[in-house]
Amino acid sequence: MRKPRDFDAELKSLEHKARDLRNRKVQQLGELVISTGADALSAHELAGALIMLAETKDAGKREAWAKRGAAYFHGRSRRTASTPGRDSGGASAQQSGAQQSSGGAGAA
Q1: What is the pLDDT of residue 96?
Q2: How much is the pLDDT for 76?
Q3: 5 CB-side CA count, 13 A
Q4: What's the CA gap between 57 and 78, in Å, rounded?
Q5: Alpha-carbon span 72 to 76, nearest angstrom
Q6: 3's torsion region: left (phi>0), alpha (psi -120 to 50) or beta?
Q7: Cα–Cα separations (whole angstroms), residue 21 to 1, 27, 87
Q8: Which residues have a Cβ under 8 Å from the Cβ of 75 and sit 6 or more positions away?
Q9: What mean pLDDT do residues 45-49 have?
Q10: Residues 6+ apart with CB under 8 A from 50
Q11: Residue 75 near residue 94, CB atoms below 8 Å
């Protein structure tokens, strides 16, 4: 004879897992904002920039942003694995490049 399923317990477990996933996503997005230096922007500036990015349909721009993001993560993982003084020139070049592009995006 089969044991009856406890649908309420299963639903509660799924809700708990979904809440944990949402919390993890929010935390990771916050860490991303901080690691890119975007936390220096006001909430209004950051929200406006993100809305503009989300509304952009130009595939070329989106692909360029994706490549730049991939390069950022690739460089970041390399910096964490290497010795501290070795990649400092590349890190400052990335930061200055990010500031230039954010200024250009705001002007557009």
Answers
A1: 39
A2: 74
A3: 4
A4: 32
A5: 6
A6: beta
A7: 36, 10, 34
A8: 87, 90, 91, 94
A9: 96
A10: none
A11: yes
